[in-house]
Write a structure and sequence with these properties.
By secondary structure, the chain is an all-alpha fold. Helices cover about 60% and strands about 0% of the residues.
Length: about 150
């Protein structure tokens, strides 16, 4: 599975060229278009601030370790429930790995970048609940954004 991000006329032209090449190779393609603006920049920034906060408070984990753990425990279940293609790809490539291998895979496996604003809102709530059980209180700056919109 290839993910192509289009954010300019130049990247659009490259994407069209890549699709043309893939079509010539395989003669069939399945293309899914997702509006990347569905995700809130504020939600994304908050998640990264939280990774840093958890890392600082737990002291034994880096922010990247926290991000991987959150993606695995909080993000993967949301996408597996909402997205059949994600569930199938995850189950084939990741599900059978050991826990440590899954955490390592989360460094490279897209999770939150695939989420809509609604899904990312659910993810942030799940992260908040997950780390509260470990003694870390994560706060939402409610006035900054509407997570469910």
């Amino acid at each position: 599975m290839t993910t192509i991000y289009i954010h300019s006329d130049t990247s659009l032209q490259k994407a069209i060229g890549s699709l043309r090449e893939e079509y010539r190779k395989h003669s069939k393609l399945k293309v899914t278009v997702r509006d990347s603006d569905n995700r809130s920049v504020d939600q994304n920034a908050l998640s990264h601030a939280w990774y840093e906060q958890v890392s600082n408070e737990l002291a034994q984990e880096s922010a990247l370790d926290v991000k991987c753990e959150a993606k695995l425990h909080c993000g993967v279940p949301i996408l597996r429930a909402d997205d059949e293609d994600f569930r199938q790809a995850y189950d084939v490539a990741i599900k059978g790995l050991t826990y440590e291998q899954k955490l390592e895979a989360m460094k490279f496996w897209p999770v939150t970048s695939l989420m809509t604003k609604r899904q990312l809102g659910l993810y942030l709530e799940a992260v908040q609940s997950y780390y509260l059980k470990r003694g870390v209180v994560l706060e939402f700056p409610i006035s900054r954004f509407d997570m469910a919109a």
